[in-house]
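User: Design a sequence. Structure:
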């Protein structure tokens, strides 16, 4: 069996008996022109091979693309869920051999079996197990499975040779509906627990290989909280017996033979990845609709800022981490923090990361898809703190310092969370403590304004009422004290 990744949820599967096209989306502006395949691909339309079976998993427009379906041949057998809208559209396009599948419906084509797997989502949909003598492949697509479904599938196929997993806990409408768009820990943990029940021999993250474009592009910062690399990293702990863990990109193939899966990169004849632009999908909920901008209000020299900050971040910060490995950062090592720091300058930005799973912490340039603790700060506000021109209140409450985290630890039981309230998620404020920075900044303010006004300070010879009252109390106290001494004096 060969499974070719066309992009996102679109697959071309070759079994020993037939060729199957699944959820074809062949053009890169889809979902009413809000989405495009990511990473970027190139389709060679004239080389799309013939196929016998067309499978539509559900009606969502990133799976049910009318333009692609209008382009493809109509003389194939089509399998759909029980959805009259899908059926009517297909018939209008010219398809006539249309068959609906219910939960756990089974179709046999020679020695190949197709099993529709149940989804708990409200929209009529299914995942699908494809099995032939070479092995067993389960494509979960967008289906929401539960333990009961997994139990049934494994009763029919005790070993899943390759699982294309439903894996991304998407946050598609949380921002628009004024809901939380922090990392969805419980939902992701549940996904990992279910995959742990399946224990596939090989696994790859399935659908979700797309990006939002044009006016919708801001959603890329809040919709995709998990990277493919992070998912693959987590699966190694959830399923330690899994032999092969990889991410299929457009043009890649997973070949199954005698139950063993082989990952073949860029082997497709009709689709290929032309640019890995997945960095646009970086989850950054603290910057959505509010990019970090450094207006440099104090007019610091940019070159001087860069030199000072680079020395502080690349040289002094790793030393500080190592010096306090056993106290301040003990929990960082325990929770395997991968700290990513982005500093925005007036003319550019620079990103570094620090990996607390290493024995010796180093400063590395660039970003990492495994980062789980993030700080963003403008260069001039950080520099102002370093020079004691500002307290941490300036970047912190002024919007020039932002932080977020997606800290968890994975085991065979799912994901565990630290006590975030007791964990400082801004290492910079540990290197330069609030009280120390506050004291230095206020002392500098005192010196500055004393020099500014010097002998020209506003003064008054007139005593305030409280001062007069205070003097009266002092006189009364002294008089009373003297009288007491006279009474107590010996005769």
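Assistant: Done.
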């Amino acid at each position: 069996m060969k499974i070719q990744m066309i992009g996102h949820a679109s697959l071309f599967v070759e079994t020993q008996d037939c060729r199957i096209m699944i959820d074809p989306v062949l053009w890169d502006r889809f979902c009413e022109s809000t989405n495009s395949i990511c990473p970027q691909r190139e389709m060679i339309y004239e080389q799309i091979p013939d196929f016998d079976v067309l499978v539509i998993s559900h009606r969502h427009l990133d799976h049910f693309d009318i333009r692609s379906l209008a382009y493809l041949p109509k003389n194939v057998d089509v399998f759909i869920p029980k959805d009259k809208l899908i059926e009517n559209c297909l018939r209008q396009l010219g398809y006539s051999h249309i068959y609906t599948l219910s939960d756990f419906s089974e179709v046999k084509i020679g020695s190949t079996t197709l099993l529709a797997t149940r989804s708990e989502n409200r929209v009529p949909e299914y995942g699908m197990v494809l099995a032939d003598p070479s092995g067993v492949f389960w494509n979960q697509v967008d289906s929401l499975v539960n333990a009961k479904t997994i139990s049934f599938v494994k009763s029919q196929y005790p070993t899943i040779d390759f699982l294309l997993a439903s894996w991304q806990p998407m946050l598609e409408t949380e921002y628009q509906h004024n809901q939380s768009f922090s990392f969805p820990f419980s939902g992701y943990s549940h996904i990992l627990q279910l995959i742990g029940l399946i224990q596939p021999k090989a696994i790859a993250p399935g659908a979700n290989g797309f990006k939002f474009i044009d006016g919708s592009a801001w959603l890329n910062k809040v919709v995709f909280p998990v990277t493919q690399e992070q998912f693959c990293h987590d699966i190694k702990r959830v399923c330690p017996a899994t032999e092969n863990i990889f991410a299929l990109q457009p043009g890649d193939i997973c070949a199954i033979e005698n139950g063993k899966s082989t990952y073949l990169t860029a082997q497709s004849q009709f689709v290929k990845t032309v640019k890995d632009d997945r960095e646009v999908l970086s989850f950054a909920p603290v910057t959505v609709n509010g990019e970090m901008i450094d207006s440099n209000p104090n007019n610091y020299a940019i070159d001087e800022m860069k030199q000072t900050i680079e020395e502080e971040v690349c040289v002094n910060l790793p030393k500080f981490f190592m010096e306090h490995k056993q106290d301040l950062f003990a929990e960082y090592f325990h929770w395997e923090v991968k700290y990513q720091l982005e500093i925005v300058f007036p003319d550019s930005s620079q990103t570094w990361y620090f990996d607390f799973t290493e024995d010796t912490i180093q400063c590395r340039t660039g970003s990492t898809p495994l980062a789980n603790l993030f700080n963003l700060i403008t260069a001039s506000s950080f520099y102002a703190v370093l020079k004691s021109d500002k307290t941490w209140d300036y970047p912190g409450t002024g919007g020039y310092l932002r932080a977020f985290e997606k800290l968890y630890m994975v085991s065979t039981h799912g994901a565990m969370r630290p006590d975030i309230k007791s964990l400082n998620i801004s290492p910079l404020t540990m290197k330069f403590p609030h009280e120390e920075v506050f004291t230095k900044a206020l002392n500098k303010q005192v010196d500055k304004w004393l020099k500014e006004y010097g002998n020209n300070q506003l003064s008054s010879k007139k005593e305030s009422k409280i001062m007069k009252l205070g003097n009266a109390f002092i006189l009364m106290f002294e008089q009373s004290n003297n009288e007491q001494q006279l009474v107590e004096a010996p005769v």
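The longest strand covers residues 112-118. DSSP finds twelve helices and 26 strands in the chain.
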